[in-house]
């Protein structure tokens, strides 16, 4: 059985790295309403503690929250459209004699949307630097790195626990 390219993209290492970083940064900044899978939202106390650690004013915090809310909206639109286009392309490839012109246009639009994601991320980086001072930005970056390391260790621990659990005699193979 062959996997479609869109199925590979959803789990391949390095793919969508930028899209995984945006929610992580938002979580660490404790400024976004949504967070990554398997992470709980931060309490108001945790948000306030991180705001104080970074040295941000409440006004800066609200500006960054608004920025992330707009980013979430834009990214949802981009991801939704990208998914629709990938499905169209996959459906087109189901035919041996597919229309290569249509496939080319779909691929072109998918690449344009990928570029748009990069531009959204780049714009956020510029906005962050306009909102935060250099010192605040450096404290935020240190906080992000610490949170990322903590998440990596947690993931590694869970992976080891998963790998050490007893397996059935079928070694994970289907029963047929």
How much of the sequence lies in strands comes to under 5%
Low-confidence parts:
1-15, 27-38
Class by alpha and beta content: mainly alpha
Structure annotation, total helices: 6
On the 0 to 100 scale, the average pLDDT is 81
Q: Would you list the SSEs in sequence order as H and E?
A: HHHHHH
Helix content: over 70%
Global outline: flat
Number of strands: 0
**First-to-last CA distance:** 16 Å
For this structure, the quaternary state is: single chain
Radius of gyration (CA) equals 21 Å
Report on the biggest sheet: none
Structural features, described:
By secondary structure, the chain is mostly helical. The chain has 6 helices and no strands. The protein has helices spanning 5-9, 17-29, 44-54, 58-93, 100-131, 134-164. α2 packs across α6 (134-164) and α4 (58-93) runs antiparallel to α5. The longest helix is centred in the middle third of the chain and has 36 residues, at 58-93. The two termini are 16 Å apart.
What topology does this entry show?
Layout: H1 5-9, H2 17-29, H3 44-54, H4 58-93, H5 100-131, H6 134-164
Pick out its properties.
disordered N terminus, 0% strand, 176 residues, mainly alpha, single chain
Nutshell version of this structure?
By secondary structure, this protein is mainly α. It is built from 6 helices and no strands.
């Amino acid at each position: 059985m062959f996997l479609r390219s869109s199925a590979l993209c959803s789990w391949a290492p390095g793919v969508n790295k930028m899209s995984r970083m945006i929610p992580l940064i938002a979580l660490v900044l404790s400024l976004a309403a949504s967070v990554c899978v398997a992470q709980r939202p931060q309490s108001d106390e945790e948000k306030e503690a991180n705001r104080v650690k970074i040295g941000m004013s409440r006004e800066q915090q609200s500006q960054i929250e608004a920025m992330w809310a707009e980013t979430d909206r834009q990214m949802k639109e981009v991801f939704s459209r990208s998914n629709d286009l990938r499905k169209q392309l996959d459906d087109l490839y189901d035919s041996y004699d597919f229309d290569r012109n249509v496939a080319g246009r779909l691929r072109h639009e998918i690449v344009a949307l990928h570029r748009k994601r990069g531009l959204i991320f780049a714009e956020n980086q510029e906005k962050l630097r306009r909102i935060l001072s250099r010192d605040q930005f450096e404290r935020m970056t240190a906080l992000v790195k610490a949170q990322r390391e903590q998440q990596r260790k947690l993931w590694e621990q869970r992976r080891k626990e998963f790998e050490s659990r007893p397996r059935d005699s079928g070694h994970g193979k289907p029963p047929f």
